[in-house]
Every structure is written in C-alpha cells, then in structure tokens.
C-alpha cells in the first residue's frame, strides 16, 4: 500500500514538473523561433539579390563571393541553433558551465524583463575561478523559472545585480531605482504559473537551492566537484 502511494506521488510530481517545463519553454519559444529564423531570412535575402543580378546579367564576382560567404555563415548559425535545441530535452546528458547557462537564459528573457521595467546587471566574476560543469537542461529550466518568478511578481521597477559568489553559488541583489511614484505600476501576469511550489520542483530536479529574500536571492547548486 505504501509503495503504491509513493509511486502515485512520484507520478504526480513527474507530470507537474513536465507541465512547468512546458510553460517555461512556451514562454521563450517566440525568442527561439526568431533566433532560428533570423539567419535563414538573411540567407534568403542574399539569395534573392544574387538571383536578380543573375537575371539582369550584372553579376559581380567579388560581391557574389562575398554574399555566398555570408550565406554559408548564416546557414552554419542556423544549424548550430537547431542543434542547440537539444538543451530543452530533459533527458539530455549535455553539460555546460553555469555562467554560460545564466548568460543564455538572460538573453532569452531580456525582452520580457524589460517590458516589466526590470533591468539586469551582470557584475564581473573573479578571475581564475574554476567553474564546474552542471547538467545543462535542468539548470536552464531552473534559472529561467527563477527569472519568470521575478518577472511575474515584480510590483514596481527593480534592478537585478547578478554576481557569482563562488563556483557553486550566485546572488541576485534586488534594488529599487528612483522612479515617478505616480507612474503606473506593472500588473501581475494573470496566468502566472511559476510560484514558490513550481520553483521548488524545478530546483529539486536541477539539484539547485534557492534562498529567497526580499532584497536578494541566492542560487546554489551541486556539481561533480562538490
């Protein structure tokens, strides 16, 4: 009987986690799509220009080779972007450095944070620090989940100052800039899903611990070197 209850609870947690991951992915999907289509669009534009020049018999060898090189670079960028989609597979064994994942997550969320009057500052890390690899997919989901949580619950403009305190911990210091007290405050997202419970599920899956405070948030994690 006890085993059945445990299995039921484990299954429920699994599906809850899958739903939260799905929400996080959908949050940044438009950015991913734009990043993938951008290089292809540029390649098509260069292809169209060369086609028109060919039809008019005004091809310039130097400019044509330059455009072909641009197409090669854009297609290579698109291929790398497609391969990088494996990061969203929770069963992936890919590993990456925490600071690289943090940077990627900030790029994906930058537009959303800006719309909520949330500015981000990456403070310089100490030189010579040996950062260990972490599981890329769950760490990214946990990091994006934290950023979504901050976005959903920001009641006024805030500044986020992000600093790696050591190879296994970063801190986000939250400050409130001077602003017009009569300015309209951001409205809470009506369908906010990333609450403390959802954030905890993402943290447990990534072996991450969030220490939530009013003025700062600490994020620490386990590594193979821990």
- Contiguous runs where pLDDT drops below 50 for at least 5 residues: 183-188
> What is the highest CATH level, the class of the largest domain?
Alpha Beta
- Which fold name is given in CATH as the topology of the largest domain? Heat Shock Protein 90
Report the sheet with the most strands, covering strand number, pairing sense and barrel closure: 5 strands, mixed
* Helix and strand element order: HHEHEEHEEHEE
Q: How much is the average pLDDT?
A: 84
CATH 4th-level superfamily of the largest domain: Histidine kinase-like ATPase, C-terminal domain
Structural class: alpha+beta
What is the spatial order of strands in the main beta sheet?
2-4-5-7-6
> Which band does the percent of strand residues land in?
15-25%
Number of beta strands: 7
Shape: elongated
* Whole-number total of structural domains: 2
Distance between the termini: 37 Å
Organism: Methylovorus glucosotrophus (strain SIP3-4)
Protein name: Histidine kinase
In short:
This is Histidine kinase. With 226 residues, the protein is an alpha+beta fold.
Features:
five-stranded mixed β-sheet; alpha+beta; 7 strands; 226 residues; Heat Shock Protein 90; two-stranded antiparallel sheet; Histidine kinase
Give the helix/strand layout.
Layout: H1 2-55, H2 61-83, E1 95-96, H3 98-115, E2 118-122, E3 134-135, H4 136-153, E4 158-166, E5 169-175, H5 196-206, E6 208-212, E7 216-221
Helix pairs in contact: 1-2, 1-5, 3-4, 4-5
Structural features, described:
This is Histidine kinase. With 226 residues, the chain is of the alpha+beta class. It has 2 domains: 2-88; 95-221, Histidine kinase-like ATPase, C-terminal domain (Heat Shock Protein 90, 2-Layer Sandwich), CATH 3.30.565. The chain is 55% helix and 16% strand. The chain has 5 helices and 7 strands; from the N terminus they run ααβαββαββαββ. It has helices at 2-55, 61-83, 98-115, 136-153, 196-206, and strands at residues 95-96, 118-122, 134-135, 158-166, 169-175, 208-212, 216-221. The strands form 2 sheets. It has a 5-stranded mixed β-sheet with strand order 2-4-5-7-6. The chain has a two-stranded antiparallel ribbon with strand order 1-3. β4 and β5 form a beta hairpin. α1 runs antiparallel to α2, α1 (2-55) packs across α5 and α4 packs antiparallel against α5 (196-206). The longest helix is centred in the first third of the chain and has 54 residues, at 2-55. The radius of gyration is 22 Å and the shape is elongated. The chain starts with a helix and ends in a 5-residue tail after the last strand.
């Amino acid at each position: 009987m006890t085993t059945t209850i445990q299995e039921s609870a484990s299954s429920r947690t699994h599906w809850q986690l899958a739903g939260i991951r799905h929400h996080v992915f959908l949050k940044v999907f438009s950015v991913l799509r734009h990043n993938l289509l951008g290089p292809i669009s540029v390649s098509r534009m260069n292809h169209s220009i060369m086609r028109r020049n060919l039809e008019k018999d005004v091809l310039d060898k130097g400019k044509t080779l330059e455009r072909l090189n641009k197409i090669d670079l854009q297609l290579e960028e698109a291929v790398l972007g497609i391969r990088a989609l494996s990061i969203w597979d929770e069963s992936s064994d890919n590993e990456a450095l925490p600071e690289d994942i943090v940077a990627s997550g900030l790029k994906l969320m930058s537009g959303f944070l800006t719309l909520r009057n949330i500015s981000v500052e990456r403070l310089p890390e100490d030189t010579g620090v040996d950062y260990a690899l972490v599981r890329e997919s769950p760490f990214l989901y946990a990091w994006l989940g934290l950023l979504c949580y901050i976005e959903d619950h920001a009641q006024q403009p805030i500044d986020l100052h992000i600093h790696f305190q050591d190879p296994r911990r970063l801190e986000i210091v939250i400050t409130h800039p001077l602003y017009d007290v009569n300015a309209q405050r951001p409205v809470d997202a009506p369908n906010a899903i990333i609450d403390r419970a959802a954030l905890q599920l993402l943290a447990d899956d990534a072996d991450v611990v969030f220490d939530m405070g009013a003025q700062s948030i600490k994020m620490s994690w386990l590594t193979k070197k821990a």
